[in-house]
UniProtKB/TrEMBL annotation:
Predominant location category: membrane
Organism: Halomonas koreensis
Quaternary state and interactors: The complex comprises the extracytoplasmic solute receptor protein and the two transmembrane proteins.
Record membrane topology: Multi-pass membrane protein
Domain Tripartite ATP-independent periplasmic transporters DctQ component: 16-101
Protein's recorded name: TRAP transporter small permease protein
Cited function: Part of the tripartite ATP-independent periplasmic (TRAP) transport system.
Annotated compartments: Cell inner membrane
UniProt-listed Pfam families: DctQ
Amino acid sequence: MNRAIGRVAMYLIFVLIAVLLWSTTSKVFLSPSMWTLETAQFVMVAYFVLGGPYSIQLGSNVRMDLFYGDWSPRTKACVDAITVFFLIFYLGVLLYGGLVSTAYSLGYFGDAPFAFLFDLAVTFVTEGRSAAAEALGFLERSPTAWRPWLWPIKTIICLGVFLMILQSLAELFKDIGRLRGVID
């Protein structure tokens, strides 16, 4: 799943280039567009967050190679298996904050954002889009002049962090397999 999403997210760089090209062209020859800066930021966030799990899957993530490169595969697997717990903890905290922020952006201001999101998803699946739309409150908007809704990008961030957690768990299982001698 991360491979497919990452391969699609790769092409967001071309969307980003098109938005920035339009921004430059409109500022020089036309009146400047208000939407280009935030759209470029949103596209870059989606590119980064959805491409991260794919990068980890390929092993192309950045590592500090001061000592790591000289270690044996078994030592690397042991260190990776230990440090992935720190990554998963960090991503868990990030996902928690992202889900709370997403619930807020969908108009929920109470103390149970996870129950709200769960009920919203169940309502969407069982009763349809219009019933789910009735459950929403005041949708959060950006404070800029363009004022786009923020829930789409916050949802993408939560999806990307969730996929990163899944990929981190897959890497943990691979490292355990290397330590047990099952994987070379």
